[in-house]
Write a structure and sequence with these properties.
The protein is 43% helix and 23% strand. It is of the alpha/beta class. Helix 5 packs antiparallel against helix 6 and helix 6 runs parallel beside helix 10. The protein is elongated, with a radius of gyration of 39 Å.
Length: 521
């Protein structure tokens, strides 16, 4: 090995190794002391790089590796020197051809320096990215290769991540451009018809009343459809940009469905479509009521739109698990063609098809439905077959189920509490000993079931029930009343205010348990 006094000479293409690098090497020597202490110290100061110095003259080779080579490659210098290519064998298979081709240029003296970027298989099998810089010098008839190898795995990972982000953004921009192109056409096209019909109405004085009514209906239908599209678009945009925030409240699932159906009764009746509902009264959701009405209305409206006259639509809901409620909206309609099934929830693939009676759609409704459901941490999926029908499923969070017991008799309170905790462990138990305290619980939690004694301090059971119903017109939770004596007039009073179950004391716990089960199911 030349001493430190040997100066770097000008690179000359005339001084070349006799053959390809390491070919014909008979002697290898591993050096333990570096020639360039400063460079070695710099490389050793950083855990993600190592330095090597290789001197080749004739059939003899001497090499030094800085200590950090093991940390990066997993191999000791004594292991690498035993390899024919000093560890180049561990270059990743897909990269080795390019690395060999480029190394050949510096090994044969064609270039004075080289930069390489390649993957390397560590001793533990882990694949890492290495960046290697090599500089060649000719000294005393031999060649010196100085190399600095840096582990750039984390950098490459970040680069790949950023590349993926850029690709995703590019795809999103392209998708939005396509979406805007489709949307601009859908917003513009109906106005031609609207203007055409209005010109006829303004200029044609000989039109009959029937013709005028027909043209006005066309204008009304087109205008209503455009307004619906604009509303969907605004809601979707507000959700995307964060301007619309969810306001989850405890909502009864059954009343939510009935509210949606009442708005669609007219169009269902025009096609003689029967809508059947199977949603338990005891099912409550934790949802933004306005947005969830949009979801159910849209799905049921589509079911009506794509159903022939005289068909049936079924709406059901039940517990999916402890945290979610599953809704199912099933129709006997025309079904969704296979070519459209992958597109129906994608706003950038927005399309619209006419219903069985020529009804128009916006094409944006299901994209908004999916967005709303996913904002509620739910999921939506569907099954559909042409000429058989479609079945849409979606999940939304359920509201915590609570049973409220209002009883100031300690003995009865303890007995009933035990029945509830032992048999209805999935329900949260809340107790109160007077009507005023119970009203506060109802306002905050809207329990799934209320069990109340008639004889309460401060107010009796009838007053308590009336206070609840007066304060909340949407209160649908079942109520069980416990009375000390069976007074038919009192029982009738409770029935009149909506209480179905009245149990006489002393309480029979088997009857109480049975009535709780009936009320909750």
């Amino acid at each position: 090995m030349p001493s430190k006094k040997n100066k770097e000479v000008k690179y000359s293409k005339e001084i070349k190794p006799k053959a390809a690098f390491l070919s014909g090497i008979r002697q290898k020597k591993l050096l333990t002391e570096p020639q360039d202490r400063v460079l070695c110290d710099i490389a050793s100061a950083f855990e993600d790089q190592f330095h090597y110095l290789l001197f080749l003259k004739g059939d003899e080779l001497e090499i030094f590796y800085s200590p950090s080579v093991k940390k990066i490659t997993g191999y000791l210098p004594s292991e690498l020197i035993k390899k024919d290519s000093l560890g180049r064998e561990f270059v990743y298979q897909e990269d080795i051809s390019d690395v060999k081709k480029r190394l050949h240029k510096i090994e044969t003296g064609k270039v004075p320096s080289l930069k390489l970027l390649f993957r390397f298989v560590r001793k533990d099998g882990k694949i890492i990215w290495l960046k290697e810089q090599i500089k060649s010098e000719t000294v005393d008839g031999g060649i010196i290769l100085k190399g600095l190898v840096v582990d750039v795995t984390e950098f490459k990972k970040a680069e790949n991540d950023y590349g993926e982000i850029i690709n995703n953004l590019s795809e999103e921009i392209t998708a939005r451009d396509n979406f805007l192109s489709i949307l601009s056409h859908d917003l513009r096209a109906p106005f031609s018809s609207i203007l055409g019909f209005t010109e006829i109405l303004l200029n044609e004085t000989a039109l009959t009343e029937a013709e005028r009514a027909e043209y006005l209906n066309y204008i009304n239908d087109s205008s209503s459809n455009q307004l619906r599209l604009v509303n969907y678009l605004l809601d979707w945009s507000n959700l995307q940009t964060g301007r619309m925030h969810l306001d989850p409240q405890r909502v009864q699932a059954q009343s939510l469905v009935f509210n949606c159906i009442s708005a669609l009764t007219g169009i269902a009746m025009r096609k003689n479509i029967d809508i059947k509902v199977n949603v338990p009264e005891s099912l409550f959701l934790k949802t933004d009521e306005r947005l969830m009405i949009q979801v159910i209305t849209n799905l049921v409206s589509n079911a009506i739109k794509f159903s022939e006259e005289g068909k049936t639509i079924r709406i059901s809901a039940d517990r999916f698990n402890n945290e979610l409620v599953e809704f199912v909206i099933k129709d006997e309609g025309v079904g969704i063609p296979d070519i459209y099934q992958s597109r129906i929830f994608r706003f950038e693939k927005m399309f619209s098809t006419r219903g069985t009676k020529g009804e128009k759609g916006t094409g944006l409704g299901l994209s908004l439905v999916k967005e709303i459901i996913e904002r509620h941490k739910g999921q939506i999926w569907f099954y559909s077959k042409e000429k058989v029908g479609s079945e849409f499923h979606f999940t939304v969070p359920s509201s915590e189920n609570t049973i409220l017991l209002v009883e100031n008799n300690k003995s009865d309170f303890i007995k009933i509490e035990k029945v509830i905790r032992e048999n209805y462990s999935s329900f949260k138990f809340v107790g109160a000993d007077n009507g005023f305290e119970a009203i506060n619980v109802v306002l905050k939690q809207q329990p799934s079931l209320i069990i109340s004694s008639h004889d309460l301090p401060l107010m009796n059971g009838v007053q308590f029930v009336k206070s609840i119903l007066r304060g909340d017109k949407k209160f649908y939770s079942p109520i069980i009343i416990l009375v000390d004596t069976r007074d038919e007039n009192l029982i009738k009073t409770y029935h009149d205010v909506g209480v179905r179950t009245v149990i006489s004391k002393p309480v029979d716990l088997k009857i109480v348990n049975r009535e709780i089960s009936i009320a909750l199911n």
